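Data availability (excerpt). All sequences and predicted token strings are deposited with the supplementary files. A representative entry, ATP synthase epsilon chain, is shown inline so that the format can be inspected without opening the archive.
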Amino acid sequence: MTQMTVQVITPSGICYNHHAAFVLLNTVNGDLGILPRHIAVIATLNIEELKVRRVDDENHVDWIAVNGGIAEVKDNLITIVTDSAERARDIDVSRAERAKMRAEQRLKEAKAQKDIDTVKRAEIALHKALNRLNVSGHR
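Structure token line:
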């Protein structure tokens, strides 16, 4: 069986490095399913979950909260470079809930003040918090 290697790299180093039989990326152009021997591609990622079906067991799926970034697929190696990423098992749910509440409050205040820049930043923070909470549900 042919397999791929998936590496997720953040500024603090490699946070994920495993073999995979299938990977699902959420790109700015839509979902992209990757199987072994996929053609070379570079794609921009959304703030969304990354699904990695491991080779050791077809029911073993790793879920990773990825906060945007770039994915490169080449020669059965998928390299994802992102500002931050967390595996479902590593997400502190209470911290993510607090981040969600803070972002919602900032968003509400920014909309009331009609502060477009702060609205955009608060929306991104909220999206990141919701993504982490969603991924944490896959434990």
